[in-house]
Amino acid sequence: MRGLEEERRYADRCRDALRAMIAGARQNVVVGEDTWGDRYTAERLGYHLKSLARELADEGDGPPFFGLVGYRDDEQAQEHRGQLYYLGRRHISDAIGRPPLVIDWRAPVATTFYRATAEDPQGIAVRRRFGWSGEKLTSLEDESLAGAEHTAEGGNEQERTDGSRSTGGVDGARGIGGILRAEIERPRVGPMRDIVATIQPEQDELVRAELAESICVQGAPGTGKTAVGLHRAAYLLYAYRSRLQRSGVLVLGPNQAFLQYISAVLPTLGEVDVEQTTIDQLLAVGIDATDLPEAAAVKHDARMAEVLRRVLYRRIGTPTEAVVVPDGSYRWRVNQYEFEQLVDEARAEATAYGVGRERVVSRLVAALQRQAETRGQNCNRVWQRRMARAVSPAVEAVWPVAKAAEVLAEFLSDPFRSEAGESNRDGGLSSEELAAIAWKRPRKAKSARWTAADAVLLDELAALIARGPGYGLVIVDEAQDLSPMQCRAIARRSEHGSLTVLGDLAQGTTAWAARSWAEQLTHLGKPDAEVVALTTGYRVPAAVVAMANRLLEVLAVEQAIDVPATRSFRSDGRLVVQRVDDLAGSCVDAARAALKEEGSIGVIAADHAVAGLTDVLRAEDLVADRLTVVPASLAKGLEYDHVIVVEPADVVEAEPRGMNRLYVVLTRAVSRLDVLHHRPLPIGLT
Ligand SMILES: Nc1ncnc2c1ncn2[C@@H]1O[C@H](COP(=O)(O)OP(=O)(O)OP(=O)(O)O)[C@@H](O)[C@H]1O
Known about the structure:
Layout: H1 4-33, H2 39-58, E1 67-71, E2 84-88, E3 103-104, H3 111-115, E4 124-133, E5 136-144, E6 150-154, H4 163-166, E7 170-171, E8 176-177, H5 178-185, H6 201-207, E9 215-219, H7 225-239, H8 241-247, E10 249-252, H9 256-262, H10 265-268, E11 275-277, H11 279-283, H12 293-299, H13 303-313, E12 323-327, E13 330-334, H14 336-348, H15 353-374, H16 381-398, H17 404-413, H18 415-418, H19 431-437, H20 452-465, E14 473-476, H21 484-493, E15 498-503, H22 517-523, E16 530-534, E17 536-537, H23 542-559, E18 567-568, E19 574-579, H24 583-595, E20 601-605, H25 610-619, E21 627-631, E22 640-646, H26 648-653, H27 658-666, E23 669-677
Parallel strand pairs: 2-3, 9-15, 9-16, 10-11, 10-14, 14-15, 17-18, 19-23, 20-21, 20-22, 22-23
Antiparallel strand pairs: 1-2, 1-4, 4-5, 5-6, 7-8, 12-13
Helix pairs in contact: 1-2, 6-7, 7-8, 12-19, 13-20, 14-15, 15-16, 17-20, 20-21, 23-27
Adenosine-5'-triphosphate (ATP) binds near residues 203 and 219.
């Protein structure tokens, strides 16, 4: 095996090769521009070559590889016998026909790097991990899978602050090396990073699960759900590239702050063609009103699906007369009874409303055509189109064209009328529920002001009228917070695709948050998806995990959720719970102390307290790049090295699911957590 110096030379060689690849890609762009061919092909080729060139150029500076696997020199290694493979974020080669210098982490041969263990070495003799400081290769660490011994070389003093790291760092019990531990414990600054170098075996199983498998990951805070979801997207785009580029990949997150936080991960993995958005943005309806909680609860209820279906289909009437169409010297005719039958049939076929209507038109035309043909009429396309136009008023009278916004505006203007006689039936809404959603004044669709919940209803109606296209892969984060109706919107978009559901029932904070994955998966259209629990936390230190687990017990008792407790991977970290008289003053002191250490700082408080705290901290000049004041309602999914939680009782009281919110807030800390309280601590924290 090469020593550190030789590895550095190899890294230089890889960089040179990568530079040559970038130059080659740029040259291809130039050549591509001069290529003869039709404009479309030239444009597509140009686009492809340019994005390849850009993608390569973007990656020029990072470490060219992070690990290496050396296969055994015997038949257990099968076709890899005696081979060494360097693994990196992207494939690097210096000449066509020669083996690559670095293999993409997503290639099948890389799986052993993530999964081989001393018990199951999978043909591997040694696994090497590289430590980098910026662009410089500073250390390497070997793990022999034959005898499970570790050796290490290099590393600077700064990186070796504790005993386990300085030996190359092996955590004996778990077989975790120092480079790995240092990577996981590294301070966080800026947006989320990729974890390709340190994906853990249980995470890798999820990342590389087949595309056909829809999966649900129940993961306690910091267990890497989000990371797993994003790496899965990158992996599947590699393994099923052409299929997914055609059908599209969608990543759904809870809010803008979260999307911002994860936005860098996929691009660093070379994937830019992934739509990352929130459910509200996905539904693409301008939202300019808010619902009262009672109204939102009704609109998000699963029963609304049936209510809307009824409201829409109630527009279809019964024919009251025959359809008669003059055609030159003839008059073709479909009698009332036949027309009625056509409508009934189309309705019973249970396709989309718009499709059903089209069927009525085309079947009427077919009936006219049969008559015309017996008279020797030439029924070509033009004739058929003319007949379709001629029957249209009769069809419109019975099966009118429907627009989602008009149907919903009509319904919300007077839900009692639409639902008259339905309220006591199975699946109907009670009169209180109808009253909760009724608009105070009737409005037309054009002047309607829609809420976020209305957007979901509009989407349901639009799909009842005409089904839209879906995606090949949909990844939903924080899925416990979705309402049944939101789940249905996602189910429609992943009906023929693969779904990856990520969430934590204990972090459910919406009024409709799921209490069981089985039920949520049914709403998401994948009732058979396997639910896998991740329980090793890579963010939250042990002391904080212990406190969060106590809160989890309270949540489990109060809310009948069944969630396994977390176990922290991290041995470091600090928790200070302090009763103070002056919350703002103590927060200033805590912020000042926190800024003396490295990493990001999040001051998290109940939403209503944020403005006041921001003013106080700003007056002391403490709100900096590294320090952010975060409303509790926006903390989900985010993390900070140092978290200062101000008055937990206020966080709990601010909303019905306040205890869950507090659980989210407390588990944002990577290294240090200060809890400042004046009022008594909520139960579970005492
Ligand atoms: N295998 C790993 N190697 C290094 N870091 C990891 C690994 N797995 C997770 N992490 C880190 O742990 C932190 C938590 O990961 P992530 O945000 O994906 O967890 P999560 O389960 O989505 O958490 P939450 O539910 O609290 O939002 C991130 O900083 C992530 O980079």
